[in-house]
Amino acid sequence: MKTICAFAGAAKGRSPQFSSEAYRLGQMIGARGHKIIYGGGRTGLMGAFADGALSAGADVTGIIPEFLDNHEVGHKGIGELIITNTMHERKSSMYKDATDFVVLPGGLGSLDETMEVLTWCQLKLLNAKVHIFDLDGYWQPLHEMLSHIVEQGFMHSTNLDYVFWAKTADELIDKLEDTH
Question: CB-based contacts of 42: which residues, under 8 Å, 6+ apart?
Fold first, then answer.
């Protein structure tokens, strides 16, 4: 069993496929018996992902700072909802037990979390895999930016050995199950 930390938008995005695929991915991960940790909201893609995992019987823990609990509306149907004082406390609590990270489409919060985790992995503060769900090419600009950083000599290519890109939920699940 893995402990999967998921990053996803508190909004649904423009494509209806984002929500349906977030739900489906949560369901697929939950059906494999993995524990889920995520941002704790019930709205947007993060809510859809959590609902999918719950529908498959997954153990789901949400972590949300108090000031966002009202804004993102903390998900009351999950196994545990942890309220933190700050964003920093939220993020470090989300990261600490994760064996893998799953990144779904999202906004600045998801981007911030993703970049922080990539940095922590590079610095060996985390020993985890990062699985980026590039649904409809959503994260392609990030992929290009990371390649550009390597090409310009600001990062060694081996610092991306723990990053896995997937265009479909099935591909992401295959990579998640194949990595240790």
Answer: 50, 51, 72, 73, 74, 75, 76, 77
CA–CA gap between residue 156 and residue 153 (Å, rounded): 7
Q: In whole angstroms, what is the distance from residue 122 CA to residue 24 CA?
A: 30
**Average pLDDT over every residue of 18-22:** 97
Q: What six digits make up the tokens of 77?
A: 């149907």
The CB-side HSE value for 175 (13 A sphere, CA atoms) comes to 21
Per the structure block, which two tokens stand in for 71?
């804004």
**What is the rounded distance in angstroms from the CA atom of residue 20 to the CA atom of residue 63?**
23
Per-residue pLDDT reduced to its tens digit, 66-91: 988 776 588 888 999 999 999 999 99
Which domains are seen in the chain, by residue range?
A: 3-178 (3.40.50.450)
Structure tokens at 80: 């545990």
Distance of CA 73 to the CA centre of its chain: 18
Beta-ladder partners of 101 = 5, 130
Angle in degrees, CA 114, 119, 120, rounded to 5: 100
Show the tokens assigned to 163. Answer: 């990053």
pLDDT at position 72 is 59
| Ordered strands of the 35-38 beta sheet | 80-84, 60-65, 35-38, 3-7, 100-103, 129-133, 163-166
- CA distances, 42 to each of 3, 7, 52, 64 (Å): 20, 13, 11, 11
